[in-house]
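FAQ: What does the model actually see?

It sees only this:
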Amino acid sequence: MTKTTFFCDENITRKITQTIKGKGFDVTGIRDLKLFGISNGELLEYQKGSTLITFDKDFLRKGMFNINGIIVIDHFPNRDEFTVPLVEKFLDLLIKHKIKLQNRTILLNSTFIDKY
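And it is asked to produce this:
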């Protein structure tokens, strides 16, 4: 089984990125590449080989597809004090239950966490 790597959209905060790294995953993103303001289509081109993580709900539309998976964080309010614990719980579930991300779009919110 290959190691999951994540690619963060520009709307993903540094604290979330640090949380992902802290759980032992490889992570890079738009901030690292300094490609702010690119289109969603271009974003999918840059993140090849990694699971995209974003707050952008446009990625839930039909036609938005990534073979390595897309995770859309859906929490209001969208602040680190709420989203970082949600991401931490998801990553723990990912490790524990070996959740497959390939060919999936996951809407990450408390409902997703509660089903596990």
